[in-house]
Write a structure and sequence with these properties.
By secondary structure, the protein is α/β, with parallel strands linked by helices. The protein folds into three domains: 220 residues, Rossmann fold (3-Layer(aba) Sandwich); 76 residues, Tyrosyl-Transfer RNA Synthetase, CATH 1.10.240.10; 77 residues, Structural Genomics Hypothetical 15.5 Kd Protein In mrcA-pckA Intergenic Region, Chain A (Roll). The chain contains 19 helices and 15 strands. The chain has a six-stranded mixed beta sheet, with helices on both faces. The protein has a five-stranded mixed beta sheet with strand order 9-15-14-11-12. A hairpin with a 2-residue loop joins strand 11 and strand 12. Helix 10 crosses helix 11, helix 12 packs across helix 16 and helix 13 runs parallel beside helix 15. The longest helix is centred in the N-terminal third of the chain and has 18 residues. The protein is globular. The mean pLDDT is 87.
Length: 416
């Protein structure tokens, strides 16, 4: 018999498609009904920005707060020094403490768009596991914590097995990661009363470890909950595109390019993504997702506007839509397009069309640029471009040059 959650949080996330697994759904549901439940998700600080792959769980924290509970964003200032081996083919590069702190400060700006931080019962708090990990005494840690872990059991977790099955090296440093993550839950429970750990379904083994450790040492009831690992309807990992990661920080990806990513959603994914990445009512998400023909494009614009407004604000979303309509419907030059500003020295006596496509990010290499142009996928100022060697002199930039790759990717080139 299927259990139907009664708490607002579990009801909402079940309805919207966030829930993959839970260690004890009914007990967690009862706890959520009876009072404020602090819940956390951990984030390693390996990059300056979070990306779209993180957005599902950020929305999960947002719903936790919106339904009256306390979200905790745990930054891995300590664990980033080790590296999470989960489903990776190789070790992560190790970062300096200064680089890690810089990454955390940069990521904090994004969290502040989705969560309200403060001192109230349901106000979010941001913590750094370096608070308890940096001062650990290794011998004490082995004696007090390490004895609770079975190597046999750890070897059975899918994240470790996948590395060993491929006969790829798994260092002792990385093997410690799952013990440190379990210890995080113990310390969060002990210091901050945290009772729930959430994460992607690839983190299930690590989450179960933390629950077992917390129960053994503190005898407290805690729970784990996972979200599905999302792939698009055509089988690609969510958040990956031909142009690379879809970053959440505006300095690393413009609001217009972020908007375009969502506007380009496959028809079959629109309804599901509306439920996961926006706060529109479920009925409305279903209605929009069921549209067909040209009408589904308007649903994609709603999706792009809603997601962009949450991250970058309503004005940025409106500007992105206006630019897209200008570019696509009127063939004009939108003010909000990604722009490459070249200096006079860079242009010199002239710069080739292939180089413009590379420098603007519309092609990765000269080979890519030449193939795009040869196959008829390149346009300059909305006119077909067939000569990769065509040279652009300084005078050609009297007004911005608009480059187009395929049907949906555009950039402007100006001379500074």
């Amino acid at each position: 018999m299927t259990y139907h959650p009664k708490s607002d949080f579990l009801h909402v996330i079940t309805q919207r498609g966030f829930l993959a697994d839970c260690t004890d759904l009914q007990a967690l549901d009862e706890a959520l009904i009876s009072g404020v439940v602090p819940g956390y998700i951990g984030y390693d600080a390996t990059a300056q920005s979070l990306h779209v792959g993180h957005l599902l769980n950020i929305m999960l924290l947002r719903w936790l707060q919106r339904t009256g509970h306390q979200p905790i964003t745990l930054m891995g200032g300590g664990t980033t020094k080790v590296g999470d081996p989960s489903f990776r083919a190789e070790e992560r590069p190790l970062l300096t403490a200064q680089a890690i702190d810089g990454n955390i400060a940069s990521m904090q700006k994004v969290f502040a768009r989705y969560l309200d931080y403060g001192a109230g019962a349901s106000d979010a708090i941001m913590l750094n596991n370096a608070e308890w990990l940096d001062g650990l005494n290794y011998l004490d840690f082995l004696r007090d914590i390490g004895r609770h872990f079975s190597v046999n059991r750890m070897l059975s977790f899918e994240s470790v097995k996948s590395r060993l099955d491929r006969e790829q090296s798994l260092s002792f440093l990385e093997f410690n990661y799952m013990i440190l993550q379990a210890y995080d839950f113990l310390e969060l429970n002990r210091r901050y009363g945290c009772r729930l750990q959430m994460g992607g379904s690839d983190q299930w083994g690590n989450i179960v470890n933390g629950i077992d450790l917390t129960r053994r040492i503190l005898d407290h009831e805690v729970w784990g909950l996972t979200t599905p690992l999302l792939t698009t309807s055509d089988g690609r990992k969510m958040g990956k595109s031909a142009q690379g990661a879809i970053w959440l920080n505006a300095e690393m990806l413009s609001p217009y390019e972020f908007w375009q990513f969502w506007r380009n959603t496959t028809d079959a994914d629109v309804g599901r993504f509306l439920k996961l990445y926006t706060e529109l009512p479920v009925d409305e998400c279903d209605r929009l997702g069921a549209l067909a023909g040209s009408e589904i494009n308007e649903a994609k614009i709603v999706l792009a506007n809603e997601v962009t407004a949450l991250l970058h604000g309503a004005e940025a979303a409106a500007a992105a839509e206006a630019t897209a309509r200008e570019v696509f419907e009127k063939g004009g030059v939108g003010d909000d397009l990604p722009t490459l500003a070249l200096s006079a020295a860079e242009v010199g006596e002239g710069i080739s069309l292939a180089q413009l496509f590379i420098r603007s990010g519309l092609a990765k290499t000269g080979k890519d640029a030449k193939r795009l142009i040869a196959e008829g996928g390149a346009r300059v100022n909305d006119e077909p471009a067939a000569d990769a060697g065509r040279m652009f002199a300084p005078a050609d930039f009297a007004r911005p040059v608009k480059l187009t790759a395929g049907k949906k990717r555009h950039a402007l080139v100006t001379l500074g």
